[in-house]
Amino acid sequence: MRATFLRFGAPQFNAKEINEVVKTLKSGWVTTGPKTHRFEEDFKKYVGAEHALAVNSGTAALHLGLLAAGVGKGDEVIVPAMTFGASANTVVHCGATPVLVDCNRATMNIEPKEIEAAITPRTKAIMPVHMAGRACDMDEIFTIARKHNLKIVQDAAHAVETEYKGKKVGAYGNFACYSFHAIKNLVTAEGGMLIGNDAEAMKRSRALSLHGMSVDAWNRYGTSGYKHYEHIEAGFKYNMMDIQASLGIHQLARIEQNWKKRKKIWHTYMKELQGLPIVLPAPIRAGDRHAYHMFTVLIDTDTTNVTRDQFLNEMAKRNIGTGVHFRALHLHPYYRKTYGYKEGDLPNAEWIGDRTASIPLSPHLTGKDVKDVVDAIRNIFK
Ligand SMILES: Cc1ncc(COP(=O)(O)O)c(C=O)c1O
């Protein structure tokens, strides 16, 4: 058994990233400014989108993305139940109702036919979530959106490198929301990015991200003299700091290198974890690119007595950290109480939620770390 605990999703920062943060701290400007602007420009180019707004979390990006899509009081937004709470919570923050729908058992992504079935005259938007970094079927989702005149706000928290039919998912519009939280593929400690192709809506989002002010701080205190600002709207405090962007710029510069490392680990797991009572990730659709954000296995409770929770505990006993992405959202107390969801409503999300476990996939895992993970899993099922 390994001697030290292998932490799930621990980020790693190199000298360039650390030095950039130090330079920023010494520069006299630590909040939103030139580095945030550069990070936005670099990210926009990477994704192939028209506009980018850096914010302080993926949740902030989702909230602003929904508002930019025009979501407000009385509206409904279709969200998969197999996701993190922030996807639906932000719909609630807009005064709207999240309508949770079921997903596909193999891809864990939202099921297009369930979207169609959930549309009502109040539906305003659809929120596809690219689970673990696997692209949703964007053609089918856009066809539904166009037919019913709905906006698409993508939750791309897991999907910086994800491509659908050869293009980054964020390039597809209307809005895409990324997370740079500590365990993500690109880490700014906390952080996020809103991508969009509607210039006016993105301009409004920028103002909303900083109290709804007409002039941001960098331009207010700039070398050309102090500028007055006005509150055009009652906005939020969602702006990214240059300290965070200092990490982001260099993390983005090596994102492909990290992706290749995770891809290699992914294929090792696919090979070494065959023949166990676990379901491995489904094949990747031809023409798509998986972000390899999370390697999730499903404990095959039909063929083993080990439950998912026992598996998590057994992994911890063997000094291996794990995660659960996710337990079905509609069964969490807030969603049960507020919208009356109950067991059996969304069977595929529940089925995954009871069986899923994520194992370490960080790019800095050594060959020995990966072998320890494989050995631990084999040992549990021996
Ligand atoms: C699917 C999904 N959406 C949204 C978020 C929220 O991102 P953040 O933590 O950056 O606010 C997360 C993760 O944290 C996530 O996994």
Automatic annotation (TrEMBL):
Keywords: Pyridoxal phosphate. One of its GO terms (molecular function) is transaminase activity. One of its GO terms (biological process) is polysaccharide biosynthetic process. InterPro entries: DegT/StrS_aminotransferase, PyrdxlP-dep_Trfase, PyrdxlP-dep_Trfase_major, PyrdxlP-dep_Trfase_small. The modification N6-(pyridoxal phosphate)lysine is found at residue 184. It comes from the Bacteria. The active site is at residue 184. Signal peptide: none annotated. Transmembrane segments: none annotated. Pfam families: DegT_DnrJ_EryC1. SUPFAM superfamilies: PLP-dependent transferases. CDD domains: AHBA_syn. Belongs to the DegT/DnrJ/EryC1 family. This is Spore coat polysaccharide biosynthesis protein spsC.
